[in-house]
DNA sequence: TCGGGCGGTGAAAGCGCTCTCAGGGGATGA
DNA sequence: TCATCCCCTGAGAGCGCTTTCACCGCCCGA
């Protein structure tokens, strides 16, 4: 197999030059006379030489790869278009800088060790982390190993906000949620329930806060609050709970489109019409929103762009200025706006 | 940052032993006296030593990582649950062998170079390739670089079948399609249309062949055949075409659930009732099938398990026998069965 | 004609790790 | 008590690459 991949040495011998010269040519050819460079290039092509990445990164201390770490089971990562979109933006930005994307998924508690070792082992130049819960050990692992890291969503662990080095990309969850609930109020709804995401994630907590803001209360009516986990099944269950507790509710704000579509299913099976009996608003504006029956009113955040920004931030942190970014832009967290999109469900 | 990661040397000095001993301990500790081993382990912990992967793989010629190459735009990869499931199986199998999964997506023609270089550069020990079209250059690139590779789906390029080394995992697409169409015939349908996937993929071609088998014809009625691209949008368009060409059709077999759900949308918008007016059968039995309204009759293939098998095949090819596999099992392509699942749409 | 400068090239020193090989010491058998 | 063997351990040679540093011509100005 890998049998006898030619080495620099071999190319040098073939071209009748030294290893140093070949190395220079392979890395751009600066400072090598044209005639020689062409001779070397011919040899490289003739032998089918490809640099050995291990040897190279051993000396350069760079790998040209970036890890995307998602602390969720594959089930969610791949069924939730949120990640898909995010990854898409990331992947696009990275490949523009010729950097490889490495996807690491953490499923169980035991994976933390493996991934921690991987990150610390110098396999990657930096990391992008998502979907972290408040007590997740990953950030401190990354921090301990000194790996440059950018987070998706505002980190929620204690003291996170005080770290001036901290880099993240978030969206205005609180404002978006407020818009959603205000919209329901304008539609004349009065018993508005909420289905939250896991509250140890800032995005879920912020959306709940936005709900409270809109209603002008400091504490939500417990009968109108149910907790989901950002999945459709969770939304289905939460909606059932809500209907049991508050049969008179006339609207529900779900913390994600997936949960909203789950809620839709429960409502349908319980014979409630949407939006006549119960208005539904989701969050994210991903595919399931537009496809749901009826099409979901939701809060739009440009997830793909957020992914792109995360990657951009990291690349700049690594000193690989992505094109189109003035190099004097300060390296700081980014918060993008959210916007209500009204469809048929409200 | 990576500032001063301790090296083997440092640990050796700290523990008062030689590099060789530390290396042995780090790699399992075989052949090192217990007392010494514990001393070394303490030093490793005290210094927070993590082996440098580049140095290690430079000498071992192994990276502990495997690439999954998908020649489809991210859009599809992440919105099509097919890949999600497949990846899930793969990821599960790989992590059992402590092997990292590296996801490489090819979007445009230009990505081929980058990925080709990456694969040839020794970043990974092997590759898993999916969703290849007949003239895809990737297999020959992998072959040229001698990278052990397992394919998802029976490869369709000329001469592929003759390669005794070729490893792939496929499902009985032809048989599954035949079952689907026979089922429609049993239901009394007579004008059965088909929406194919891209015919330069063997899976799509095989499913079309199965359709013909069931109908007992050598060539399908062109008015009843439309081509999609395995996406929901494609299914939507194809269904519209079919209705225009053959308004009298009473059933449609779609080459994937996603295309079937697109077809469902078109049928709904054209006012055809499913299954009363038109029966619909999909293929794959992934989430969209069960969720569709009405729930889709479809052909089940255990995609996740296929992923697992692909990974298993590759690991064995790499000499990392996954647990539970008798080591004398011959290394050969696998074809899994397909089974009809009847739901509401037919 | 000669000295200084400069662009281009090669020799060689590692990067951090694994692994072979040789040697040292303790235990064992006579 | 001495020789033999075996178990551990350490020294050292690379893995393939980058990069510094010294050097060799060559061209220029004087």
TrEMBL record, chains A, B:
The keyword Lipid biosynthesis does not apply. Gene3D superfamilies: 3.40.50.2300, lambda repressor-like DNA-binding domains. Transmembrane segments: none annotated. It holds the Pfam family Peripla_BP_3. CDD domains: HTH_LacI (cd01392), PBP1_LacI_sugar_binding-like (cd06267). Residues 6-60 form the HTH lacI-type domain. GO terms for molecular function: DNA binding. InterPro entries: HTH_LacI (IPR000843), LacI/GalR-like_sensor (IPR046335), Lambda_DNA-bd_dom_sf (IPR010982), Peripla_BP_I (IPR028082). It comes from the Bacteria. Keywords: DNA-binding, Transcription, Transcription regulation. This is LacI family DNA-binding transcriptional regulator.
């Amino acid at each position: 197999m890998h049998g006898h991949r030619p080495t620099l040495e071999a190319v040098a011998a073939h071209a009748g030059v030294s290893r140093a010269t070949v190395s220079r040519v392979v890395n751009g050819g600066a400072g090598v006379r044209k005639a020689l460079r062409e001779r070397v290039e011919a040899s490289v092509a003739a032998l089918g030489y490809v640099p050995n990445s291990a040897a190279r990164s051993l000396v350069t201390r760079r790998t040209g790869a970036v890890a995307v770490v998602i602390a969720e089971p594959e089930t969610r990562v791949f069924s939730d278009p949120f990640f898909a979109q995010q990854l898409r933006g990331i992947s696009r930005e990275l490949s523009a800088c010729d950097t490889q994307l490495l996807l690491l998924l953490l499923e169980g508690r035991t994976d933390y060790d493996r991934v921690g070792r991987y990150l610390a082992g110098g396999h990657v130049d930096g990391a992008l982390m998502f979907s972290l819960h408040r007590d997740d050990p990953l950030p401190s692992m990354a921090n301990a190993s000194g790996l440059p890291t950018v987070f998706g969503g505002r980190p929620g662990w204690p003291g996170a906000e005080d770290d001036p080095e901290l880099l993240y990309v978030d969206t205005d969850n609180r404002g978006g949620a407020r818009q959603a609930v205000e919209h329901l109020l304008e539609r004349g709804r009065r018993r508005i329930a909420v289905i939250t995401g896991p509250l140890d994630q800032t995005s879920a907590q912020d959306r709940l806060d936005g709900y409270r803001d809109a209603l002008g209360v400091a504490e939500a009516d417990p009968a109108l609050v149910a907790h989901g986990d950002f999945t459709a099944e969770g939304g289905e269950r939460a909606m059932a709970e809500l209907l049991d507790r508050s049969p008179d509710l006339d609207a529900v704000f779900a913390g994600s489109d997936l949960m909203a579509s789950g809620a839709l299913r429960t409502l349908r099976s319980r014979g409630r019409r949407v939006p006549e009996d119960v208005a539904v608003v989701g969050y994210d504006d991903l595919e399931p929103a537009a496809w749901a029956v009826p099409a979901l009113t939701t809060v739009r955040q440009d997830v793909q762009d957020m992914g792109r920004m995360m990657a951009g931030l990291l690349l700049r942190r690594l000193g690989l200025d992505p094109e189109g970014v003035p190099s004097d832009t300060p390296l700081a967290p980014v918060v993008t706006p959210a916007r209500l999109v009204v469809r048929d469900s409200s």
